[in-house]
Amino acid sequence: MALPMARHVVGVRSVIFKQTVCNGLILKCNSSSQASKAKADNHPRRVFSGIQPTGIPHIGNYLGAITNWVKLQEDSQQDEVIFCVVDMHSITVPQQPNTLRQNIYDMVACLLASGIDPNKTILFQQSAVHQHAELAWLLGCITTMKRLNHLPQWKVKSAKKKEGVGVGLYTYPVLMAADILLYKATHVPVGDDQIQHIELAQDIARIFNHTYDTSFFPRPEYIFSEVKKVKSLRDPTSKMSKSDANPLSRIELTDTPEDVQKKLRKAVTDFTSAVTFDPETRPGVSNMINIHSALTGLSPLQVCEQTKGLETAQYKNILADLVNEKLAPIRDEILRLQAEKGYIEGILHTGAKKARTIAEKNYDKIKEIVGFS
Known about the structure:
The structure is a single chain. The protein is an alpha/beta fold. The chain is built from 14 helices and seven strands. It has helices spanning 34-40, 59-74, 87-90, 97-113, 131-140, 145-149, 152-160, 167-182, 195-211, 257-265, 283-296, 300-306, 312-338, 341-370, and strands at residues 17-22, 25-30, 46-51, 80-85, 122-125, 187-189, 221-225. The strands form two sheets. It has a four-stranded mixed sheet. A three-stranded parallel sheet has the order 3-4-5. Strand 3, helix 2 (59-74) and strand 4 form a beta-alpha-beta unit. The longest helix is centred in the last third of the chain and has 30 residues, at 341-370. The N and C termini lie close together (10 Å).
């Protein structure tokens, strides 16, 4: 049975959102369709999110994503929390097998050291559950190229590549939708640069349900962190990134105290010596204040009050001490876990087994719905 495509395809739409703040996280909910919300309410609350194995996370990953995962894990309101190391997404760009393998271990070690508890969550490796790829193909058959062409990440990333661009880079948002919908996730913690990908997943769920006259897929809502995006230490107008060729641009979770001191000392600021918060005119200093705020729970204004009278150079030293204090136990645990590959493999094996149980059940039903079985 071929999937219907002509009449029911994913299109472009505008959405009105209302905002709810819960447990330090911002939950965006669609307020344009009460019927859609009613259907979603029939599904048990389940959180799903993934992270690419790009090596050791930097402090922006930690503050913007990982700490939020830990909060969600500890929230007793969640029925189930599933976190995935999305190694299939990582190969949209060339990867050395040995490096990728090590990066997967390192990412799991960092997640565990940061507080992710495999007894409270399902933590697994994406490629260990083959239904991700199978569902991505099925969903790709009801998604148009026109819809994917509207995603800004494709335009930006493809423009940077002078040679041919792989199909995977174009279609990975469909795989992302499959990651979410395979587990019938109702909530997805993401960064603001992933909003349109979640909206694509919402569209695909809606079209699938309409095409096959079912309410099988819930409408996944996205969850934001209140933590401001951490910027590059060398270019505070851009976000901190692992892909930046300059290692001074980021603080990694395994950096030594000396590394942290050096990177913050060399962080780009301006010619004003006072410590003031103004992201528009003083992005460098404001970026450091945001890091300070995220680590302590203080507001940027409170940070400025505490550091009143200090010069920027002095403040950099204070921030370096704070970062080292917060990251030291995490760094030590990462280094310990990196030497325990058997333990990490066991965590991934157990997590994959749990994830597979959910995935197999859901995909068997999907095959029945579309006529595969």
